[in-house]
Amino acid sequence: MTIIAFTLLLLAGAYLAGLVGSLTGLGGGVVLIPLLTLVFHVDIRYAIGAALLASIANSSGAASAYVREGITNIRLGMFLEIATTVGAVIGALIAVYTPTNTIAVLFGSILLFSAAMTLRKKNQEALLEGSRAAGVLKLNSSYPTKDGIVDYKLKNVGAGFSIMTLAGIFSGLLGIGSGALKVLAMDSTMHIPFKVSTTTSNFMIGVTAAASAVVYLQRGYMDAGIAFPVVLGVLGGAFTGAKLLTRIDARVLKYIFCAAISFVAIEMIYNGFNHKF
Amino acid sequence: MKDVNKKQQPADYDIEQFIGLQLRYGVIIASLVVLAGGILYLCTTGNIPMPHYQEFIGEKAGFSTAHQIWNGVSNLNPKGIIELGVVILIATPILRIFFSLIGFMLEKDKLYTAITFLVLCVMLFSVFGGLKV
User: Fold this and answer.
1) Domain that residue A218 falls in
2) Among the four A192, A232, A248, B81, which has the fewest Cβ within 10 Å?
3) pTM score of the predicted model
């Protein structure tokens, strides 16, 4: 395959990854890693580097719209970024020493379990009574909906913070935005309305990914020939996704989210068992 | 019930608008630089077979330090220009933390100034900490 053919094919794939990533809050990495490794037979380390870039591009591109619409909870994002950035640095450090096959299998299992949990519980409701910690940390906020401004409160801040640290470690280790774990921490644990948790997750993914990306850049994981189509394709997809999200019902969003999460899970477990990582 | 949020709404709104624009322009500039480098890359080497990406060569490919990337850009090396775009892209969320910090300082929100400063420290440690291994 010539460079130009490879670039165009990858550009199309990255566009789809960006679209799915921005609609679900997962980040583009989850589609890109299987695409690069299984379809294009690219070394997993280049795939991780490209996926991190995709996550940053996707997150920043989509977040710029959500933040200005006032859906994103910036304080919550900022507070939880302590956990995700520390986690991401740890993840990037232990990546060198960790048998990633084991982690892939474990991670896949957690994701499958999470998908089942998410399907069972629907969290559209805004919580009226929050915990004390949420009040002290000024995490309670409001967001615009079709029926006007809705106030919401949240709870289980400590548990959410812990899951976020884990999300950061996985993000640094595997190059994905870990949007799935981020949304889970906010949606299922802290009881934040789905649209707020999705957009706040998206907002945080850029910073989380950047924390490990600088380490990987210095290790030579980010190849220019892959970065070029990936960054532009993912941005195009994220832009389309941001336009679509305001017109899509959160229920549809949740099904897309679950399908995507199961897809990643099976892919991770399969590759882990076959020692492909 | 005291409502802290209502009082902070106008300043929060300004921060939201500014951060939104900063993220947008960061991404636009990064993608334009990547696009320029990419077009040059395709024009100069588009018709040759693709590299063997199944083998990881890492740092040996060059462009993994600020010095190498800058040299590449000055020599109009297509890959050097793409990597400059990559650096701008990675810098965009880091700059966002920096601007959030200023925003919270202007708002005199001490708690969130401290929280944001902490996140910025973690990022700077990641950049300059020599964690490459």
Assistant:
1) 3-273
2) A248
3) 0.86
